[in-house]
Design brief:
Blueprint: E1 2-9, E2 15-22, E3 36-41, H1 55-63, E4 67-71, H2 90-104, E5 109-115, H3 118-125, E6 132-138, H4 144-159, E7 164-171, H5 177-184, E8 191-200, H6 201-205, H7 210-224, E9 235-237
Parallel strand pairs: 3-4, 3-5, 5-6, 6-7, 7-8, 8-9
Antiparallel strand pairs: 1-2, 2-4
InterPro entries: AB_hydrolase_fold (IPR029058), KANL3/Tex30_Abhydrolase (IPR046879)
Organism: Actinidia rufa
GO molecular function, one term: hydrolase activity
Length: about 240
């Protein structure tokens, strides 16, 4: 595995600091025409979210053969611009990064992974990027308080026909299991959940759970090419 740093141009002259985690060997060597990249979106910028929080997952995915990319959204770290309260401007950052990845890293499929507040922001970008083939949410803040800021993002991901996986701890302080289930009842397309028993929102964000997130993401990727995956139940837990 190797790591490279690059700068990606977004809209209005904003530049984004990104890191590319390249595997020593790739899972897609036998089928380069379907090369997949995983773009990871960090937690809420306003509360200190940054790409460094995603490096453990990105490194783990790269070690397993998957090209992975993290980046600081506008106003974070070396990225220019100013963070927005609701994440509306950051949607354009995600689109810019995904387009850059496709143009410069020989990828024509992208899996979007969003953590915490990065999940609703990434969800709003899913159907705006043709190359995105699936979406993984790690701790989507669907709860009432978080919805004050992120309600505007809910509709986009719930109406997307693309495959979706929602991972959450059963003791998440922002979203209850019931709230998650109620929201996903109206979701279009293939929608699955994975509940981690007894784990809180910020515990799941921590490095202790990076390896488990890697396994869940890889399992989801493999299921995308499995025709029988469409017959899976909507909800499953562990």
């Amino acid at each position: 595995m190797s790591r490279e740093t690059c700068t990606i141009e977004a809209n209005n002259g904003i530049t984004l600091d990104a890191r590319i985690f390249k595997p020593a060997t790739t899972q897609q060597e036998e089928a380069p025409e379907t090369s997949l990249a995983i773009v990871l979106v960090h937690p809420y910028s306003v509360l200190g979210g940054c790409q460094g929080l995603m490096k453990g997952i990105a490194r783990g995915l790269s070690n397993r053969g998957f090209l992975s990319v993290t980046f600081d959204m506008r106003g974070v770290g070396k990225s220019t611009g100013r963070a927005s309260l609701t994440g509306s401007s950051e949607i354009r950052d995600i689109i810019a990064v995904c387009k850059w990845v496709c143009q410069n890293l020989a990828a024509n499929r992208i899996l979007l992974v969003g953590s915490s507040a990065g999940a609703p922001i990434a969800g709003s970008a899913v159907d705006q990027i043709e190359e995105v083939v699936g979406y993984v949410s790690l701790g989507y803040p669907f709860g009432l308080t978080a919805s004050i800021l992120f309600r505007g993002h809910h509709k986009a991901i719930l109406q997307s026909p693309k495959p979706k996986l929602f991972v959450m701890g059963t003791r998440d302080g922002f979203t209850s299991v019931k709230q998650l289930e109620n929201k996903l009842k109206s979701a279009a397309g293939r929608t699955e959940t994975h509940l981690i028993e007894g784990v809180s929102h910020f515990q799941m964000e921590g490095p202790a759970y990076d390896a488990q997130m890697v396994e869940l993401i890889i399992g989801f990727i493999r299921s995308l090419s499995d025709p029988s995956s469409t017959t899976r139940p909507r909800y499953f837990t562990s």
